[in-house]
Write a structure and sequence with these properties.
The protein is built from twelve helices and twelve strands. Helix content is 33%, strand content 22%.
């Protein structure tokens, strides 16, 4: 097990609500997770589960109001991010924690060249000459697989393909050598071949730079290729956590099992794919008890009234479902 001093990011009992005209929306409802140095941790769940809101809270990019962190802590390298003033947070963001957003075309400024935008990111944190910056950017673009980087330095975002724009976003995130990169659905808008290339790139860059990655996705198929550990999130709550092997081989929560059942695989070719019935509940109108119980094939009467605690499986594997846990405890779980 990693030592406590190896913990880079620690999110503890985090609650985030949005206040509008109606009832408060509990987007994040008391989550805990940790990321160790040089580790890739994936946060998995459908849209609306609170994954991106959590990432924005870590980065200090939540608009407050309407958002409000009502409880909890976020520690980065032992330092409380929620206690930093705006200037301290600005100095940290981009330098030690960086983020790759989901849609690069809306994240990159269309009226500035790629080189100008990466230059701005570097000069915000370091005092270096423009010639040194230019050489660094060329190396960054080369490292992320941009062909003819010297020429692309002076290109505008619309002159690049979707995959190239996402590679530029990764280069920008890596520009100052961060300890942690948060990648929020970075392959969603890309075709399958380019998705695989970006995943391979992130895996290679992690080995080269020894950074940690927090990867946010709704696709468990993506997770299998890059994750060391996985947190499954539903309706603002962590419902399962474990290593990649534990989650895929012995899923302990019905939601995780449903996500795995919905994955397209070769043996399902020609068959109708499974889809989880219903939708993620609106964060202002969550059901009583287990938030997944209206969609769950394992549900019992108690599920509609009791919010379950985490159940412990072997080797740090945990899931928030006593019903499945009781069945696994009969001897079905094998490490």
């Amino acid at each position: 097990m990693p030592r406590s001093q190896d913990i880079l990011l620690s999110v503890e009992d985090l609650h985030i609500r949005f206040q509008g005209d109606g009832p408060p929306a509990l987007a994040v409802d008391g989550i805990d997770f940790k990321i160790h140095r040089r580790e890739t941790v994936c946060i998995v769940g459908e849209s609306g589960c609170g994954k991106t809101v959590t990432a924005l809270a870590i980065m200090g990019l939540l608009r407050q109001p309407p958002a409000r962190i009502t409880r909890g802590q976020i520690f980065f390298d032992g330092r409380s991010l929620l206690d930093l003033d705006p200037l301290e947070l600005q100095a940290l963001r981009g330098k030690r924690i960086a983020m790759v957003f989901q849609e690069p075309m809306t994240s990159l400024n269309p009226v500035f060249t790629i080189g100008d935008q990466i230059t701005e990111a570097i000069l915000a944190h370091e005092k270096v000459t423009l010639d040194m910056v230019r050489q660094r950017i060329i190396r960054l673009l080369e490292n992320v697989g941009i062909p003819d980087p010297q020429k692309r330095l002076d290109s505008y975002p619309h002159q690049l393909s979707g995959g190239q724009r996402q590679r530029v976003m990764i280069a920008m995130a890596l520009a100052c050598g961060p300890d942690l990169v948060i990648a929020d659905e970075p392959t969603t808008a890309l075709d399958v071949t380019v998705q695989a290339q970006i995943l391979d790139l992130l895996r290679d860059l992690k080995q080269q730079t020894r950074m940690a990655i927090q990867y946010i996705t709704h696709d468990l198929g993506v997770v299998a290729a890059i994750a060391d550990r996985i947190y499954v999130m539903y309706a603002g709550v962590i419902v399962e956590e474990g290593t990649t092997a534990q989650i895929f081989n012995h899923p302990g929560h019905p939601y995780t099992r449903a996500l795995l059942a919905a994955l397209p695989t070769r043996d399902k070719r020609g068959q109708r794919l499974y889809s989880i019935p219903g939708n993620v509940p609106h964060p202002a109108y969550k059901p009583e008890g287990c938030p997944f119980h209206p969609r769950c094939t394992y549900r019992q009467t108690s599920c509609g009234t009791t919010f379950p605690l985490m159940c412990d499986y072997p080797a740090g594997h945990r899931a928030r479902c006593p019903i499945v846990h009781a069945a696994e405890a009969e001897g079905l779980y094998q490490e």
